[in-house]
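Re: the 269-residue chain
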Amino acid sequence: MRCRLCQGEVEKQFDLLVLGRHEVGYSRCRDCSSLQTDDPHWLADAYSASLTVSDVGAVRRCLTCRPLIWLILHFLHLRRARLLDYGGGSGLLCRLLRDIGIDAWTADPYGTSEYARLFSVDMDSAAPGSFDAVTAFEVFEHLPCPEEDLARLFRLSPSVLIASTQPYETKYDKTWWYLSPHTGQHVFFYSRSALRRLASRFGYHLHSAGAWHIFTRQPVNPIVRSALKGVLSAPSLQLCRILMEAMPDRKHVARDFQISVTGIEELKT
């Protein structure tokens, strides 16, 4: 077996029972130091429901990601960006972003986008350059073939790709909470080195803080880079989240309501 991200050799670390019935091996790559499961043949079972019962933080995550995106787009002078939220699930984050005037769209091979059905995108039809920004929150670790799946995202050539995933460290063993074997949906875990290599491979610059990762196509000057680190701190996001609740949203909601009545063709004018 080879690493599904870099094709390096892997060595077995431990076994876990996934979904309570599949004996699965977890192996570490000798090259990029990432951790992966055996070939995830159980994914059809794992995604019988797109949202697992233990993902109780899904709504809170959307409320936190909204100010994060708004701040990053402003710092990078992308206020009018057309944004794709990949792995958007129910479409809740897409809806929240549209409520504050961001031209957000969503795509998810497993989700149904209930909150943003008019703004759901087929990834196979998305052309390079069609989105200025791409977000992928708690998505990377779900990708069964990260080498191919991430290449599809980066081929869209966005100015910025904003992601979140918990980096893997070699000190972690089978008790690491992020492995989440009871859900069966987490199948690949990236080392920080792997994330840096990923950025370099596609010509991006990586800025990370904890589980947040910002890939920019252009280098970021030191002042903005320092500001971005401040943005990624919990107190900054909490304050912005509170302030954002006071932002006007009526005109944006009304616009999308009109689109729902007159049809999606209005977006093309």
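The first strand starts at residue 10 and ends at 18.
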